[in-house]
């Protein structure tokens, strides 16, 4: 059985990834766009954090800050028939697939102009027209759905695959293992990407998972290929994802990837102990040496295709866009009481095509 | 009209819908090469092949979740649960994912999945295999649930369920699989949410669903010998619910007995009772009574299990007590 051993990041790995066709063929504009994408995601989330602290956003707010290279790199290599789904740390994936800051911010404000009309909140962003199937709140609950997307593509003989993102805390849920087994058993082209930020909420990887070398190595038990990679450099993420997406589609096989990353903030903003289960130094060390935005900015600077002025412009635009989104969200209306019972049943929302009879809703 | 079994009626519905729509697949434990744990899917694998009729591992959360994901992309999977009792290991999928995705996406997604299988006690298999979760399902906005009491209804309801754009859960009954009813050869559909008066009567209305309808009809025949004329309304569909047919009957008979295999607390009949008192209070000549399963886990011991479930003797007794109360 061929499996990929854990690869440790080094400048060599990044150099190798940079030379891979998927990266070497990028135009300067496309490279700058990758940096811009990561900056936009971060500024959006920082702005949403302010709104949360102001009491404008309720519920949970799971920030992706520190992890941007993973979603940015992996989504950037997908084709038009590839679909994806993730858990509740879902803002980056939304913005990266083309959802607007306005609709995303408004959703978190619980406004009618939100992407889910104020019914989903931070954890439940969806854009099926952009192949984005959410945004799911229950740990690992999305894993069989991702499997099902890929199964449907295979059944419908569409040349595509599905990426199913999950956190490192999800790897111990039964349904994830059920999904791995079925994916391998039936040769389903699904790529499970563990976004391993080191912590299942406040419990470190070492205290929650038993494994040898890598969480992804569990794939071997299912005769499935896997790879584990330090994922702070967007070139590396692109190279790895592209290679395995092609493998999955060409061979109709599943893959389990582990992308090692780090989150600067708590599990959610409500996680008040985010600096108690780890040291400040640990966070600082990552920020200083492996921050995805800083690392890629340095790469592009070294390649001579970006300067400080351009970065400042990108930063300024992203901040302005995020501020405008907060203003849009703030000024938008809340949903109406009548809308509470909309979007429950397809039939109720499409009364002209309703075939059933009787009452669908029950009042007091 | 030919008489066919409840099992055969379901198989015909599956076969017809598989032929009609390529996006329909049948999936579940032992449905294909084994020909079905209850032979409901017998012959379908030979007829449609392994792409359409799929044996799954014993992995309910995994394969049901997979079916939900596939349905989001336009497939119409019909998932068989060997027992609805096994749905409990897939509860996150059947509730959080199938029912909530449409809502949380603000209406961008719909989940046209069917999950079907038997949900009944009375087979001497103990508590973990005897659940009747139609009340759990009906409790969840976004889900639909039907409980056919006979072969004709099973076929017509299942065909409608497969064509429905919302998740529909079909709860069958192993004790009915081998029983025969008249089913026409020509195609027909029964809309979800349409109750059926299975027996007309003037003295009292029994409202029931699933196999309890058969029990109620038998009790009604016995009572008729004593001149007691009972109407039996079969809900057929729990959600959507045809309460109007129930109310119409209640307004005619003025007395109600609800016969329900659920346990009494928060049973399907609890909701029916509430709605009758709310919407037909002035028509009631007696308190609404219920015959439900006795409130304990399903007992294994065979003669006791028959006592625990609604049975003809308990139904007859309850009817007489209501009528005695009125005349007293």
Q: How many structural domains are formed by the residues of chain B? A: 2
Give the overall shape of chain B: globular
Return the CATH class of chain A.
Alpha Beta
Mean pLDDT of chain B: 97
CATH architecture of the largest domain in chain B: 3-Layer(aba) Sandwich
> Helix and strand string of chain A, N-terminal first?
HHHHEHHEHEHEEEHEHEHHHH
Summarize the main sheet of chain A. Answer: 6 strands, parallel
Radius of gyration of chain B, CA atoms, in whole angstroms: 20 Å
| CATH level 3 topology of the largest domain in chain B | Rossmann fold
What is the CATH class designation of the largest domain in chain B?
Answer: Alpha Beta
Topology, pairings included?
The complex is a heterodimer of chains A (364) and B (328).
Chain A: H1 11-19, H2 21-24, H3 28-53, H4 68-75, E1 83-86, H5 91-96, H6 101-108, E2 132-135, H7 143-155, E3 162-167, H8 174-185, E4 190-196, E5 199-200, E6 203-204, H9 205-208, E7 225-230, H10 234-251, E8 255-260, H11 280-290, H12 292-302, H13 308-331, H14 346-349
Parallel strand pairs in A: 1-2, 1-3, 3-4, 4-8, 7-8
Antiparallel strand pairs in A: 5-6
Helix pairs in contact in A: 1-10, 3-4, 3-12, 3-13, 4-10, 6-13, 7-8
Chain B: E1 3-5, H1 6-20, E2 24-28, H2 44-48, E3 53-55, H3 60-72, E4 76-80, H4 91-104, E5 114-118, H5 134-138, E6 144-146, H6 151-163, E7 168-172, E8 180-182, E9 196-199, E10 204-208, H7 211-224, E11 230-234, E12 237-239, H8 243-253, E13 256-259, H9 268-280, E14 289-291, H10 302-308, H11 312-327
Parallel strand pairs in B: 2-3, 2-4, 4-5, 5-7, 6-7, 10-11, 10-13, 13-14
Antiparallel strand pairs in B: 1-8, 6-12, 9-11
